[in-house]
Amino acid sequence: MKNLFFITAISLLALNAQAQNVGIGISTPLARLHVADSNVLFSATGDIPVTAGLPPLQGGGRRMMWYPGKAAFRVGTVNDVQWDKDSIGDYSFASGNSTKAKGFYSTAMGYYTTASGTVSIAIGYITTASGNASTSMGESTTASGFASTAMGSNTIAAGNYSTAAGYLNTASGWFSTAMGSNSTAKSSYETVLGRWNTDYTPVNTTTGWDMADRLFTIGNGTSSSSRSDALTVLKDGKIGIANSTPAFPLSFATAIGDKISLWSNSSNSYGLGIQSSLLQIHTDISASDIVFGYGSSSTFTETMRIKGNGNVGIGISTPNAPLGFPPALGKKITLYPGATGDVGMAVMGNLFQIYSDNPSADIAFGYDVAGTMTERMRIRGNGNVGIGTSSPGAKLQISAGDASVALFGPNSYGGMLYIGASPTNYSTALTAQVLASDGNLHIDPASGKNIYVGYYQARDIYLDPFGGNVGIGTTTPVNILDVTGNSGSAGNFVNTSTLLNSTGVFGSCYVNANNGYGILGQGGKVGVFGQASLSGTGDRFGLLGFGNNGTGTNYGVYGSATGGATAYGVYGIASGAITNFAGYFVGNVFCFGGTYQGSDRKLKKDIKGLSDALSIIEQLKPSVYSYKTDEYKQMHLPEGLQYGLIADEVQQVVPGAVKKVVQPAEYENHDEKKGKKLSDEVEFNAVNYTELIPVLIGAVKEQQVIINNQQKQIDELKKLVEKLLKQ
Questions:
Q1: What letter would DSSP give residue 637?
Q2: Is the overall model pTM greater than 0.90, yes or no?
């Protein structure tokens, strides 16, 4: 029987071999294999082997192929090794052109698609599903994250469980979604819509949930170089409108203009806006108001209203002033609620009240802001009033600054101030008066009384109302002004004027051309003390003296000292400046006696012998010259032929012997701000010739050694000559 079946099958195949088609159940097959009216079954026993054999065909070509070794199916065309053994995943399916389903249970369909992840699907044009359980569809999409999905064109779903759909979108964070065009979702659980959203570096890109990362973004950029966000929501709930980094529950772009519109007509709106250094809360027209209160829009209870004209009403809807209250007595403004009372303002019957909260609290008036207010006036809790002082010790105390009081009266006497023991009887014998008459101020003591200024009856200042003499510290002045004191200074004059050349004390006595002292000072230690130490620009003169126009000898400063252990006619100290000279003289200096410098060994350190002094002297170049007296008249340079050294040349040889000196500019009346400039400042080098003396001594000693050696050689040569002559 078996032989009969085999012979029959061979016969049928042979019969159709002529047409090269094989028919099963049909005598006229239309294809290489034509099965009619029956199913076709390709089967294999058991599961796939651990090591599969080669597929029926490898390499390029068109085919439909069942590969039982991996339970895989391929149909379509392939140009390379995509359907070779190593490119075929177990239980996979691939169809189309050059598709590759390499992952277990993977599916690849379309053109050059690749499904390399386990249970992955790649469909369309050059799509890639490399993540396990990933899906890639469309054109040039990539799903590389686990269970990720990429759809559209050129999208990338790189994060696990991520989704990218649209065009050129990337979802790299876990559980993220990117849709639209050129959008990027980087953090975990982030969703991005729109296009060209802003780039940033998230804190967490995997399973973490960081409050600073973005949760939802709508991009509205125009290009890769012009990215922006229309809306940004962070994971902590902060929302940014045109603000990619919101720092508050609701943030807007840092740009001026309208921010929120609650209702609008064609051009204006009810809403909020920002201008330079200005928050705006506005209505649409000037006839509209802004109201504060509670309840709901339909059942609203008003507590405050800002009118379109700027008036504010608290408890009143029709304020007729910049700040209006309802017409009721009682508290109006509470600035601070205290334990026993309030700080504020109130209106009672025909009375406007400004009050503090307790008897120890004061009321102050001034300007600026709280904490740094400059106070001008204070009303103490005990009723004392201070102007210019915060602690008045009387019912009215005026201190500091302009402590003036203006009194004006209806008659020619002006305002009168009566001071006395009886406030009800102005004509009492013990009442004095202060009054103004035709602009003059009069202080009139009671008949037969004097004028004293001082503590009660201390009478520190005495004014004789008849003779006009004034005594300070004495009640018996014999001069126009007598000052007697036993403190550090009997008198102290302070001038705070900002005018140029203001004077603290000015003394003048020049009726007789050869007599009189403008200021005469006598003291147990210092007769006259002068100091100028205020910091700032310009020159300072501790003591400035001029002696001019005398037919005899004129002395700018004359100093004389006699007696004692040591006497200094003039003693000067200069230190702390760039250049220091205890004495600076323009013109010749003459002295009886010698000039001395401190040279004691105890004043010196690092003492070393001077060597090569002769070499130093040889480098110095003595010169004969004349000074430019016409060019530098202000320096009063000496006339005639001069002998000396050039400081610039000395500085190259002995730098320590040269010092920079500045001849200051001169101004008329020594006033550099108002006076005419008479000469410019001159900067020049000066030579300390005294410092060259030790060098000269050293050079002479070195030269003497040379002379001695030469003399010794001469003596030896003479002896040799004499010896030769005797032979």
A1: P
A2: no
The yes-or-no verdict on residue 533 having pLDDT over 70 is: no
Q: What is the dihedral of CA 252, 255, 259, 265, to 10 degrees?
A: -150
Token pair in block for residue 229? 């966000």
In terms of Cα–Cα distance, which of 2, 29, 31, 1 is closest to 12?
A: 29
Judge whether residue 134 has pLDDT over 80.
yes
Rg (CA), the chain: 56
- The answer to whether the CB of 144 falls within 8 A of the CB of 136 is no
Q: Return the DSSP state at 242.
A: S
CA angle 572, 578, 581 (to 5 degrees): 25
pLDDT at 500 over 70: no
SS3 304: strand
Is 122 within 8 Å of 136 (Cβ atoms)? yes
Rounded Cα distance, 484 and 462, in Å: 12
Please report, for residues 175, 323, 613, 702, the alpha-carbon distance to residue 706 in angstroms, rounded to integers and kept in the order given: 101, 106, 13, 6
Q: Of 301, 335, 336, nearest to 315 (Cα)?
A: 301
DSSP class of 715:
H
DSSP code, position 693: H
Q: How far is CA 383 from CA 241, 336, 391, in A?
A: 57, 20, 11
Whether 126 shows a pLDDT value over 90: the answer reads yes
Q: Rounded to an integer, what distance in angstroms lies between the CA atom of residue 312 and that of residue 317?
A: 9
Amino acid 480: pLDDT: 72
Strands, DSSP E only, in 558-703?
623-625, 642-644, 658-663, 666-667, 677-679, 682-687
d(CA 649, CA 618): 12
Element (H, E) at 615: helix 613-619
Q: What is the pLDDT of residues 86-106, one digit of tens each?
A: 999 999 999 999 999 999 999
pLDDT digits (tens, 9 = 90+) for 174-226: 999 999 999 999 999 999 999 999 999 999 888 889 999 999 999 999 999 99
Tokens of 309: 């004209």
Phi and psi torsions of 157, nearest 5°: -110, 90
What percent of the chain clears pLDDT 70, i.e. is strictly above it? Answer: 73
Residue 204 · residue 187 · CB < 8 Å: yes
How far is residue 44 from each of residues 41, 67, 83, 487, measured CA to CA in Å?
10, 10, 20, 128
Tell which wins on pLDDT, 53 or 498: 53
